[in-house]
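S1.2 Input.
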Amino acid sequence: MYLSVLRIPRVGELSEDDDELCPVECVREFTTDEEFLGILEKAKETNALVVVDFYRTSCGSCRYIEQGFVKLCKGSGNQQAQVIFLKHNVIDEYDEQSEVAERLRIRTVPLFHFYKNGVLLEAFPTRDKERILEAILKYTASASQEVEPVS
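S1.3 Output.
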């Protein structure tokens, strides 16, 4: 199953020195459009938020944010938000733009997409894990009574 019940850290709880990575492989990589659409469809069943990291292996900023993205996916605590963390390399094995990146017109990386019920809610390029966390909190606030609104 792709879903993880997790404790989402509050803004400011993330430490730059914390080099502990996720204890399990909780960021799932997908390669095809069919696989991606299948995950989005499955996420509808649990009303899960789907967060996608679009990256390129040759991108320094993508490598920089990857560890922070992995840290966001870990943990299980009091907050019961359903979040699926995905990543997708926009360059395929033939060194060409992937079918997913082409269909979604991905031109910049690292780029993060946030989906709920199969609908794209927000997309932005960033190297800032706090910005990603704020978006996760914004879209999972109704799933947890303890989450404070993002200002």
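S1.4 Remarks. The longest strand covers residues 81-89.
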